[in-house]
Backbone:
C-alpha cells in the first residue's frame, strides 16, 4: 500500500536567510551625518558669581524671552503689552539688564518655553530672577 495523506515535502532551494530588499540603499557609516550632542539643559550661570554655591534659585521667578517679545502674540506667550515689548530679546540681553540693575538672577541658556515650540530652537533659555521682598 502507499502513504496516507498524499502530502509532498518540498525542499527549499536558495538562501536560508530572508533578503533585505532595501540593502542597496544603506548609507555607509563614513558617509552618515553625525549631529552634535544636545547641550545639557541643566547648565545654569549664576549672578553674582560669589553666590554660585550658596544661592538657592529654585524659588526664583522665571522670565522667558517670549514673555517680552514684540513679535509674539499673547497666545504664543507674550505677557506684556506689545508697545512695551522688544523684538527678539535674548537671554543674554535680559541677564545684562538685570546685572545693570544689580538684581540676583540665574541664566539657564538651554531651557525652552513650553507654550512656544519655535522659541526652543530660535531663542532658547530662561532667566530665574530673585524678586526678594517685592514678590510678597
Residues:
Amino acid at each position: 500500500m502507499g502513504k496516507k495523506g498524499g502530502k509532498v515535502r518540498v525542499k527549499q532551494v536558495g538562501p536560508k536567510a530572508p533578503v533585505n530588499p532595501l540593502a542597496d540603499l544603506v548609507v555607509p557609516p563614513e558617509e552618515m551625518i553625525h549631529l552634535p550632542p544636545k547641550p545639557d539643559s541643566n547648565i545654569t550661570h549664576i549672578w553674582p558669581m560669589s553666590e554660585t554655591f550658596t544661592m538657592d534659585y529654585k524659588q526664583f521667578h522665571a522670565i522667558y524671552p517670549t514673555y517680552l517679545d514684540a513679535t509674539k502674540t499673547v497666545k504664543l506667550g507674550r505677557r506684556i503689552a506689545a508697545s512695551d515689548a522688544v523684538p527678539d530679546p535674548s537671554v543674554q540681553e535680559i541677564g545684562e539688564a538685570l546685572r545693570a540693575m544689580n538684581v540676583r538672577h540665574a541664566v539657564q541658556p538651554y531651557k525652552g518655553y513650553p507654550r512656544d515650540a519655535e522659541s526652543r530652537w530660535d531663542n532658547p533659555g530662561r532667566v530665574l530672577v530673585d524678586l526678594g521682598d517685592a514678590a510678597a
